[in-house]
From TrEMBL:
Signal peptide: none annotated. One of its GO terms (cellular component) is centrosome. Residues 45-61 have a biased composition (Polar residues). This is CNTLN protein. It comes from the Eukaryota.
Amino acid sequence: QQEKEDLQGKLKLREHLSQTAGKSKATPAPSKNSDLEMKQLQCKLKNSNNEISKQSTTIKSLKNEVQEKEERVRELQAKISQLERDLSMKRHLIEDLRSRLKANQENEKTSNETLESLERKVKAQAEDCLNKKTCIDSLKQRLNVATKEKSHYEQMYHKAKDELEKKEHKLNNLESKMIETEYAMTELEATASQQLQGLAKQTGQALETVQRKLLLTNDKVEEFMTFVKALTRELQQSVQELRTKIKQAKKMEEVRACKKGLSQESVQLAASILNVSTTDLEQILEVEDDEETAKTKMEFEKDKEWLQYIQKLLEAQ
């Protein structure tokens, strides 16, 4: 912040000095160094502002994180107190359960003895039941297999009977259709041979006319190509001539403006200082700028690119 204040003070001083210099001098001409210093100071100001904003955002985020962590600590402390209460209750319950376990274990010993005797009886009865069930299942499976085979064979018999009837009916229809198609084929062959002969004559004539049209269109396309190439060249030449005329007109206007601004005495004085004649001084004033020459080169290159693009279009289909 201190650096920012210093830079703002320097900027104000520079502006004040530039204003005073402008008032004192008739033709203001600020030095390049002062402008560079001003730009550097402005850049430094921007950088310091950016750093301050970044640091303020980081401080805010850190404050939020600290508050969240404090709230989290409070929640954890409350949970720890609840867990301690639950632990004490669970210890009391475990002691009660242990006393009950001892009583249940004594009861289990008596019940286990009676259960063992009952399990032996149940095992014997279960083995008998299993043997009977296996016999019944095997008989049921045989019955199911036999009934399925019977129904399958009956279905196959009915299907075969129906298919035989359908095939006999189809055979009769096919024989009648074969006779009709043989008669129709003979008629079609006769008519087709006549039509083919006529078509051959027509296609021959059409091909001749199409070939003539193609030759004519090719000639027209070649004429169009030559016309477009000549047109593009003339366009480029006319554009270049117009540009040169515009530049010459601009130069003439600038020279006239310079001559109007400068009197003959000032021109002679400048010529005497430079030890040059007045005609040479006029030629020096008429020298082209580097920017104008660069522009002319760019325009010439663009014209070349345009010509190449048109060439590609003409070469393409």
